[in-house]
Amino acid sequence: MPRELGAPWHAFLADLDALVTHAVHLHCCGGFVVTTQHGLARTTADLDVVSILPAREQPALSRFGGRGSALHRKHRVYLDIVSVATSPDDYESRLEEIQPGGFAHLRVWALEPHDLVLTKLTRNSDRDRADVEYLATAVPLEPVRLRERYRRELRPYVGVPEREDLTLDLWIEIIEEAQARKH
Questions:
Q1: What is the pTM of this model?
Q2: Mean pLDDT score of the chain
């Protein structure tokens, strides 16, 4: 169950909401979701968004809340439209709303944890692996579900599937080791 947003995110999104005149949906991922919705104690200054609906609102939202905007200067956080992450094919059906009814126009959604992990797969940075290790026990992640979703909804769309297969195998090892340590 998603958690309520704290500072500075609620104030930032409330100010962004005041600049929007109709319904806009933000599909969020990255460190923003890991920290605000799953409780990882690390800082992040960007709210990663994989999709804005309607899409025609993306330029305005970037202008209002993107890096260097007045809202960024005020709140020290910003909206970052992610263009390099590949999302699982059917992620929209599993989105979890963050703070339902909390804003007049914005509807803010978090990717389901397995989908969130899969959006990080192609980058595979140290921070991504740390997030996977944390989510392994915080959620907890299910390796079988992760592998099935990867094969069905992501693998057909990645550039080098064999490389991502190896990364997924490594991540499943990380998950299983983290879960074994916890028990």
A1: 0.94
A2: 95
